[in-house]
Amino acid sequence: MNTIREYLSLSEFDAILFNKEAVMISDEVLNRVNDSFEFLRKFSENKVIYGVNTGFGPMAQYRIEDEDRIQLQYNLIRSHSSGTGKPLDPVMVRAAMLARLNTLSLGNSGVHPSVITLMKELLNRDITPLIFEHGGVGASGDLVQLAHLALVLIGEGEVFFKGERVETAAVFASEGLSPIKVELREGLALMNGTSVMTGIGVVNIHYARKVLDWSLKASCAINEVVQAYDDHLSAELNNTKLHEGQREVA
Predict the structure, then answer these.
(1) Deepest of 103, 105, 159, 225, by most Cβ within 10 A of its Cβ?
(2) DSSP conformation class of 24
(3) Cβ-Cβ contacts under 8 Å for 16 (sequence gap 6 or more)
(4) pTM for this predicted structure
């Protein structure tokens, strides 16, 4: 079991993504996220704050009326859920979700604690949001891809569950899960980040390490088979190089 307290390590990502170990959230994190949410809720009263009561991007100059603030967040999620192409590999989606969960758990985003609690449940129950390959370029975050994650969290869109692509609402109903309710700026907080490219990077690191391990073992086996000289692997020679990886391999 892996408990989120601060930053997850690569080994913890591996355990959760590839060994399907459970992820838990410590009480410390829940309190930290709740404190952040309560601070933003109180601080935003009678103030103009980007993404809370303003438009986005070039529309930031426009004030949003209080009665429209929550709808603004839902509109942001739905309008950006416009990905195209093939679905991302489920392990990459899970990696992205875990990266976003870790970021929001730091307590700097002002989201309601229900957001990270539901994300944890999706990971542990192997409910994977449908996210498409194309649509966002990461220039201001993986907006389109993360919008599809946010869409699932509000109970809409589609997910992969038990090998099938199904409506999110149906899975939530069968699993007894409730979608989040937007409270302040959950739409913006979920979407404006680079968690998808980070998740893909984490998965690629996992596979790259495996390829490196296999290539080293194959190289060693070939050297043994052909009875090659091993002078080039000597500690004296390789210690003259200031390349830690080279010395470790030798």
Answers:
(1) 105
(2) E
(3) 2, 8, 22, 23, 94, 98, 123
(4) 0.91
Query: Of the candidates 20, 2, 11, which has an alpha carbon nearest to the alpha carbon of residue 124?
Result: 20
Provide the greatest CA pair distance for the chain. 78
Which is nearest to 56 in space by CA: 79, 80, 70, 76?
76
Tell me the C-alpha distance between 140 and 142, whole Å: 7
Please confirm, yes or no, whether 50 is among the known catalytic residues.
yes
List beta partners, residue 145: none
Give residue-wise pLDDT tens across range 127-166.
Answer: 999 999 998 766 778 999 999 999 999 999 999 999 999 9
Can you tell me the distance from the alpha carbon of 189 to that of 185, in angstroms, rounded to the nearest whole number? 6
What element of type H or E holds 167?
A: strand 164-167
Distances in Å between the Cα of 199 and the Cα atoms of 27, 35, 147, 203 are: 25, 27, 15, 6
Domain boundaries, the chain: 2-204, 206-249
**Are 200 and 96 within 8 A, CB to CB?**
yes
What is the structure's pLDDT at 198? 95
| CATH homologous superfamily of 2-204 | Fumarase/aspartase (N-terminal domain) (1.10.275.10)
- Give the separation between CA 249 and CA 174, rounded to whole angstroms: 50
- How far is it, in rounded angstroms, from Cα 5 to Cα 224? 46
Q: For residue 54, list its beta bridge partners.
A: 63
